[in-house]
């Protein structure tokens, strides 16, 4: 057709092709964005191996070979038409879609701004098929019919993008040069490689023999981070899984699978030891690499105060949310995403990471301790034949050790109590100096045979939560003294360090573990004469401040609690030896540690708490919450009545004095030795309950100066 005689081309048509090109440029900004789309298609296709070849920063050539499911020959002619996708069949599907791209625009867009060739073979095909595309349509090469051409090839797909932006010079000139574009490509590949550690990736420049990035298949996120970002990051990584806070267990159990409030996240983030100039933040939402400046800001602000000023962390976060929550109106390649409930989810994730980091910060001393101790020991005991524990015979201490290295070396050494006998007036008689009381013997504790799945699961949880360094500290500690009985604070020493311990928290965890270890095989504490359940609960409810604001009267509360317990009488007796007669008398309690009797002043509180605090509806949670309550009851602490505290009576009664004396003795001579032998301390104790207060050599140095 001769345009000079036919007049100008119809404007609409011209506009359409320009519009398509502009639209394509919106989706495909630069080589790395084309690559990202193509990568996501390969992942959608179930590839386990993805090989990438790049020439000129992707502007000359971008080639991605995968071993995925391939494309059927019949689909090739329409492959690059806009809105053709195998991933949505009906509009409603948009809402459920979890795969990467969802608009069928990527290949079409690429075909508008480059020479696109697709070579593909499905398992069912005998050979591979090859087709080329321009402006959304399959093209005919060398005069043959518009048909894919048969060729040799492996299962999977090779996408070849050549001369990107050849027809949009403005876009091309906006690019930064091939080396910068190449590093952007490597960045995208690296991030997807980390997120898909089971898949092997490689990326290289065309013509070069060695790839710039390779990852093995069947790896892990952590290993892939080590492999790509290096050992410095990997060694300081913390892994955490995060779930929404469940408000009400029962409510949660009833909601349907499609609940929009359900989400889960997995994070790998660096601990306070790691510091970089710039934050590295990898965010995947439903397995798609996205950007969220809000989330990035939130995470960075967690580290303020944890890292020195000017330092930044590395954070990898994979978030899975209901696809319905992702704002589908955001353009698929606008990487900045928004989703419903963004604020709450971000808050929850930040909270969890913050808590873990703060715990980490406090336990920093533990993490480094191993090394430090080694060198100290070498310096000090190097020639004494490998005494590396503080609790070695006192021969070590009598060696000529520099005085600031002198440490308490045996259980027989003086404790705080004997050094400061007037520390607490109620301790006029120091139990340590009471020869009539021999030190307790830690009883043998046997793991009961139990094949209830719930109990095995709870035992596993204890084992998995174990913190190695803390275990060693507890196992090899030397008891220094009780600092404050009512606040449950004690000092222990390990190696050359002094730790302030909340022995209440430690004992609570320990008794919980004793409950699990001996599940179904407890000894019995007989209560004679058996007290009335109702009377005990009544005592506790009446002492309880909180019940004043309750809608129920105290009698009603007592009724309810007694009922809850009475209905479960059989179960309580069978599993826990908590025997209550039909008439409501408490005949026996489980004994968790031979030689230790819990403070029976706390019995009313224990029984009262069984009502509201135990989850009676699910087996695992019931056992766990019951044993936690039992453990809380077992915590060695005196219980002074409010009235006495208020009247400001300095002196306590004789029987209270006796109780206090007994408790102190038990803590030192029975509980700490038993914990050393049997406890599996969890990391969570480091959050608050075990704090290193001094490094003894430093402390002695201070004293020497005085
Ligand atoms: P979308 O990914 O949104 O469906 P695309 O334009 O990216 O749209 O791809 C169009 C279709 O081409 C996909 O739905 C898929 O069926 C097919 N496809 C593209 N790349 C591959 C591949 N590497 N392996 C198998 N199928 C592919
Ligand atoms: Mg796609």
What share of the residues lie within helices?
A: 40-55%
Biggest β-sheet strands, sense, barrel: 9 strands, mixed
Number of strands: 21
Strand-residue fraction? Answer: 15-25%
The unreliable regions are 1-15, 88-102, 248-257, 328-333, 363-437, 641-650
Please compute the radius of gyration using only Cα atoms.
35 Å
Average per-residue pLDDT, rounded, comes to: 78
Classification by helices and strands: alpha+beta
The number of helices is 26
Distance between the termini: 105 Å
General shape? elongated
Small molecules bound: adenosine-5'-diphosphate, magnesium ion
Task: Give the secondary structure arrangement, pairings included.
Blueprint: H1 3-6, H2 11-27, H3 31-44, E1 49-55, E2 61-66, H4 93-96, H5 106-113, E3 115-121, E4 128-134, E5 137-139, E6 149-151, E7 156-162, H6 169-174, H7 178-195, E8 200-205, E9 213-214, H8 221-229, H9 231-235, E10 237-242, H10 249-254, E11 263-270, E12 280-285, E13 288-290, H11 293-303, E14 314-321, H12 342-362, H13 364-381, H14 395-398, H15 416-419, H16 453-464, H17 468-475, E15 478-484, E16 489-494, E17 497-502, H18 503-517, E18 523-526, H19 533-543, H20 554-567, H21 569-576, E19 579-580, E20 586-591, H22 603-613, H23 619-634, H24 642-646, H25 654-678, E21 690-695, H26 696-705
Parallel strand pairs: 1-8, 12-14
Antiparallel strand pairs: 1-2, 2-7, 3-4, 3-7, 4-5, 4-6, 8-9, 10-11, 11-14, 12-13, 15-16, 16-17, 17-21, 18-20, 19-20
Helix pairs in contact: 2-5, 3-7, 7-8, 11-12, 16-23, 17-25, 18-23, 18-25, 19-20, 19-22, 20-22, 22-23
The protein binds adenosine-5'-diphosphate (ADP) and magnesium ion (MG).
Residues 37, 40-41, 100-101, 106 line the site of magnesium ion (MG).
Protein name: DNA binding protein
């Amino acid at each position: 057709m001769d345009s000079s005689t036919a007049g100008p081309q119809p404007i609409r048509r011209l506009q359409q092709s320009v519009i398509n090109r502009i639209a394509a440029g919106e989706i495909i900004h630069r080589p790395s964005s084309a690559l990202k789309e193509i990568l996501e298609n390969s992942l959608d296709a179930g590839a386990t191996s993805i090989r990438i070849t790049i020439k000129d920063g992707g502007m000359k050539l971008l080639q991605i070979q995968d071993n995925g499911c391939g494309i059927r020959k019949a689909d090739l002619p329409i492959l690059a038409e806009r809105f053709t996708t195998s991933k949505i069949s009906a509009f409603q599907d948009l809402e459920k879609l979890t795969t990467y791209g969802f608009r069928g625009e990527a290949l079409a867009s690429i075909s508008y701004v480059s020479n696109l060739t697709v070579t593909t073979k499905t398992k069912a095909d005998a050979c591979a098929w090859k087709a080329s595309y321009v402006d959304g349509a399959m093209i005919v090469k060398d005069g043959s019919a518009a048909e894919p051409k048969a060729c040799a090839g492996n299962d999977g797909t090779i996408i070849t993008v050549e001369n990107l932006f050849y027809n949009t010079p403005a876009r091309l000139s906006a690019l930064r040069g091939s080396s910068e574009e190449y590093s952007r490509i490597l960045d995208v590949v690296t991030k997807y490689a980390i997120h898909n550690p089971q898949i092997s990736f490689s990326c290289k420049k065309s013509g070069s023999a060695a790839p710039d990035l390779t990852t093995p298949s069947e790896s892990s996120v952590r290993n892939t981070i080590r492999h790509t970002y290096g050992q410095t990051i990997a060694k300081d990584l913390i892994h955490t899984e995060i779930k929404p806070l469940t408000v009400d267990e029962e409510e949660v159990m009833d909601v349907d699978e499609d609940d929009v409030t359900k989400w889960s996240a997995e994070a790998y983030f660096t601990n306070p030891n790691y510091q970089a100039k710039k934050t590295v933040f990898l965010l995947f939402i439903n397995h798609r690499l996205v950007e969220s400046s809000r989330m990035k800001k939130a995470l960075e602000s967690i580290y303020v105060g944890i890292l020195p000023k000017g330092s930044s962390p590395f954070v990898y976060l994979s978030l899975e949310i209901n696809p319905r929550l992702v704002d589908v109106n955001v353009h698929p390649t606008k990487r900045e995403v928004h989703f419903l409930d963004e604020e709450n989810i971000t808050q929850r994730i930040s909270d969890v990471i913050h808590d873990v980091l703060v715990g980490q910060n406090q336990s920093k001393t533990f993490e480094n301790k191993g090394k430090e101790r080694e060198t100290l020991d070498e310096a000090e005991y190097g020639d004494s034949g490998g005494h590396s524990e503080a609790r070695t015979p006192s021969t070590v201490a009598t060696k000529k050790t520099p005085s600031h290295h002198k440490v308490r070396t045996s259980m027989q050494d003086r404790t705080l109590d004997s050094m400061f006998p007037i520390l607490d007036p109620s301790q006029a008689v120091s139990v340590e100096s009471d020869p009539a009381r021999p030190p307790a013997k830690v009883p043998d504790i046997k793991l009961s045979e139990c094949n209830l799945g719930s109990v095995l699961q709870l035992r596993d949880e204890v084992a998995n939560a174990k913190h190695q360094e803390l275990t060693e500290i507890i196992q090899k500690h030397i008891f220094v003294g009780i600092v404050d009985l009512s606040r449950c604070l004690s000092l222990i020493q390990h190696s050359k360090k002094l730790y302030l311990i909340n022995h209440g928290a430690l004992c609570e965890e320990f008794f919980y573990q004793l409950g699990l270890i001996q599940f179904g095989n407890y000894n019995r504490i007989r209560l004679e004469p058996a007290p009335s359940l109702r009377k005990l609960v009544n005592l506790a409810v009446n002492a309880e401040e909180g019940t004043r604001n309750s809608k129920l009267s105290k009698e009603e509360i007592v009724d309810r609690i007694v009922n809850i317990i009475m209905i479960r009488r059989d179960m309580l007796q069978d599993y826990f030896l908590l025997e209550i007669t039909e008439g409501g008398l408490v005949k026996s309690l489980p004994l968790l540690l031979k030689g230790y009797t819990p403070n029976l002043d706390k019995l009313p509180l224990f029984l009262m708490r069984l009502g509201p605090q135990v989850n009676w509806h699910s087996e695992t949670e019931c056992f766990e919450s019951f044993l936690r309550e039992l453990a809380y009851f077992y915590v060695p602490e005196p219980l002074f009545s409010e009235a006495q505290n208020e009247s400001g009576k300095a002196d306590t009664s004789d029987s209270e004095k006796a109780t206090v004396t007994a408790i102190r003795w038990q803590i030192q001579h029975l509980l700490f030795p038993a914990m050393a032998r049997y406890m599996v301390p969890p990391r969570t104790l480091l959050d608050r309950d075990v704090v290193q207060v001094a490094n003894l050599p430093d402390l002695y140095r201070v004293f020497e100066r005085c």
